[in-house]
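Risk register update: the risk of archive-format incompatibility is retired. Evidence:
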Amino acid sequence: MDVAQATETSSGESEGGTPRRVVVVGGVAGGMSTATRLRRLDGSAEIVVVERSGHVSYANCGLPYFVGGVIEDEDDLLLQTPERLFERFRLDVRVDSEVVAIDATDRRVTVRSTLDGSEYDLPYDRLVLSPGAVPVRPPIPGFERVRVLRTVEDAHDLFGAVAARPASAVVIGGGFIGLETAENLAHAGIPTTVVEATDQVMPPLDPEMAILVQAELERHGIAVETGVAVTEVTAAGVRLADGRELPGEVVVGSIGVRPDTRLAEMAGLAIGPRGGIAVDGAGLTSDPAIYAVGDAVEKIDSIGGKASLIALANVANRQGRRVADHIAGLAARPAPSLGTAIVKVFDRTAAMTGWNEKRLRDAGRPYAVIRSHPMNHAGYYPGAEQMSLKLLIDPVAGTILGAQAVGGAGVDKRIDVLATAMTGGLTAPELADLELAYAPPFSSAKDPVNMLGYMAENLVSGDCDPVEADEVAPLLDDGWTLLDVRSEAENRRGTVDGSVLAPLDDLRELLPDLGPGPFLVTCQVGQRGHTATALLQDLGIRARNLDGGYLSWKAWRAAAARDVSLLGDVAVG
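Archived output:
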């Protein structure tokens, strides 16, 4: 699609010389970003915002925290009102109104009041669609009893149900909103169960990272059922595919969302291969007078370069700004998306950017894994918390393909640095050269991101050949000896199955009794294992290091068995 097909001048006037009318459908995130940015660029355009709900510019990402009472005042969620938007921006904001028809030929929409059903036609010179996404509602018997959480009205409904002090709740779906909702139901004192049809919560994470999130849920009393689907919603709860019934006076559905393309289809707009509205880099659809932004549109994925569906508020806001620029006659810079996301689950944080292992495998793309378990700041400074980091890179070029992090404080900082590095085109080894802020309360002299860079240097250069957890048993079957180079006390608290204790400081002396090798080396997190592997290689002995050490192996084993208890005292990651 040629961006140049939108031949509007930047004078604020339509072809007839009258002030241009821009109609924006949807008053949250992308839609409101478009409207306010356009007003700052063009003082004379008539800008009308049509919003189906009774609120605009509300913080829908904060809705679960309102339900749980963490955010006590509803007004804190309402970032703007129609009145304030008119006073500041002279925007004509029409709430409780929905567009029910689009005549793309005559450039007009039909608007219906959701209060009294009255209708009227609204002409436009430019139309911006920001309808968002709609919750997936599968054809499950009784699903009409399921509540969703997408709008302020939904939050009111669920808040009322929580205030009635139900004896139990079930959340169907273990993604971002599902886990946030479950946490807040638990905050409200309601026994809650999360049911996820796939084998893990947080499907965007790889299993050994997601199991750490599940452990946090269970540590706070939330029951988790994975690998089983809900087949019926009953009057008392839900029935699972294996025949079990779970009590749930309140049932919340968070199975996922799909792009709301109803209006786009009415207008005859092109729909992309992923089922979202197809747009170019400026947000222009197949109609030269219609733009689209937000969760309803397809985005270009930064890693694969193809269309993807990414439902994130910051991406929608960015798109809205670009559309406003283009309508005003400015150059619109395309911005592919990494899908960077983060979620709080009680005292843990899980964050990710780029692709995970499953997506890389499915695409047939070569990759290598780097794992680390650093502290968020200097270990000698009080309050240090451990996190689990995972970096996915091209094994030859060192290109960063994705990253994941689970832990406490500092997770958000590291994933943001990694996402910034990816956007800037830095390779994984170049992470070692980033000059990041350091003081003991905030980081270490070698920040965890720098350490990932050092590890990437070793891997890409061929200085190390790490072993993944699922390779351990086959290597042992092939005659490799597994050395645990930690201390005797650490070994007593648990070790990788089949290992032989050989503390690093005693390794040289113990070698005559350990046999000729080859050796697979493990420690707690991989650092001492790397040192031991280098020592053995210097002596001419074949050796490889277990990536991420005992902690990564234990998380892998727990994820494979879908058994949080196997994490033991390392559940916090």
